[in-house]
Structures are given as C-alpha cells and as structure tokens.
Design brief:
mainly alpha; 235 residues; 2-methylcitrate dehydratase PrpD; 60% helix; globular
Length: 235
C-alpha cells in the first residue's frame, strides 16, 4: 500500500510532464468556458468580494468541471470542446487534474512541476484507497465515496505545498490537513454537488498548505496510519 513517506518522496523528484502541461491547458480552457455557469454564479454569492487563493481555487475548479463539455460530475470525460484536443493520461480521471490545477494555479503561474507532482500523488493515493482485500472485492468504492475527488484533494494539497515551497515536515502536515477534510460522494454525480465537492477539494488543499506554512500540524501518518484515510476506506 502507498505510504505517506512514499507520497512525500515524490516531491524530491518533481519534474514537469507532458501530461501536466496538457492538463493545465485543458484546465484553462475549461475554466474560460465554465466561469459563467450557474454553479459558479451561485458560489460567488457566498463571498462576492473574496479573491483569496483558496477561494479562487474553489471557483476555478467548479467552473472547469461545470463547463460545457468539461469533466463530467461522475468522473468521465465527455470529450467536449472544453477539454481541448489532448486526452487525459491513460487511466487518469479528468476531475483529478482539474482539482490539482485549480490549487496550483491559485498560488502562481509557474506551476507545471506542481501540477505534475499533484497528478502523480493523486494516482498513488487512488491506488492506496482501492488497495486491500475489501477493495479488491469492489467494496471500498461501492460504499459511496468518490475516489477521484478524495485522491485529488491529497494531490492538490501536495501541489499547493510545492507552490508555497514547504519543507518536507510541513508538506506532511499539509497532507494530513487535506486527509482530515477529504470527502466526496459518488451519489453527487450528475448534480450541482459534483462541481461543488471538487471545488471544495481544491479550496481545502490550498488552505491546508497555507495552514501548514504557518505551523499548523496534523497526523504524522494521515494516509496509512492505523486510524488514517486508507484504513477508513477499507472498513
């Protein structure tokens, strides 16, 4: 099973990838197409004057997923114009990259490395969430959690932490802060709650990295510890 230490080791070898570059391009296109969606208009009524990075991450992730032809709420990519010409990496859920890109771009423009790291981290977390005997029997995902949204929250947190230049100890805290807030229901597919929960994952990721930078702490093993995220998904 993927460990918290293995996730953190990804940061030591972070490098841009073609998949991340394509994902950032798809994300920017989808945001432009979806920023006037009724989902985003509704969210703007909550904090119309707030332009903080966590709030920008929430709005842009929701816009990208609510965009016409954008990432479908259930995780499938319908292949509309908002996704651009490049297809997501094989086996990768487009919702994940939308959440990761939202967190990274909210903290700066030079984010290709952070997006690549977040995408790889999300894939590793998704594998960990679906590991074990119960998951092999299909039970871990059948209970109703959205694995793409939950895994994206962790990957986006690592991406945000990299954008803020967090050292390893504080990156670990950021992962834990993300893990303790990780949520997302498969039942949201096809409803307005789908872009809402994906946007909240991006919001939580940026907020977690900012809290960790200020010295906020969390569980040392938030993913694979005895009462951590992976065991929860297998229970």
């Amino acid at each position: 099973m993927t460990s918290t230490d293995q996730i953190l080791a990804l940061a030591a070898h972070a490098a841009p990838t073609a998949e991340a570059d394509a994902g950032l391009a798809r994300f920017a296109e989808a945001v432009a197409a979806g920023m006037d969606s009724h989902v985003v208009r509704a969210l703007r009524t909550l904090r119309p004057a707030d332009d903080g990075p966590a709030w920008r991450a929430w709005l842009s992730a929701a816009a990208a997923i609510a965009a016409p032809g954008g990432a479908a709420p259930g995780g499938a990519a319908p292949g509309g114009a908002a996704l651009g010409g490049a297809a997501p990496a094989a086996g990768r859920d487009p919702v994940v990259m939308m959440v990761v890109c939202a967190a990274a771009t909210a903290l700066g423009d030079d984010c290709a490395v952070a997006a690549a790291l977040g995408d790889d981290c999300s894939a590793a977390v998704a594998a960990g969430l679906q590991a074990g005997a119960l998951a092999e029997a299909g039970l871990a995902t059948a209970v109703g959690w959205s694995v793409p949204v939950v895994s994206a929250a962790i990957g986006a947190g690592l991406a945000a932490g990299l954008m803020l230049g967090l050292p390893a100890a504080r990156l670990r805290s950021a992962l834990g802060i993300c893990a303790t807030q990780a949520a997302g229901l498969r039942a949201a597919a096809g409803t307005d709650a789908a872009p809402l929960q994906a946007g909240k994952a991006a919001f939580n990721a940026v907020e977690a990295a900012q809290l960790a930078r200020l010295g906020f702490t969390s569980s040392r093993e938030p993913l694979d510890g005895r009462r951590a995220l992976f065991p929860l998904f297998s229970s």
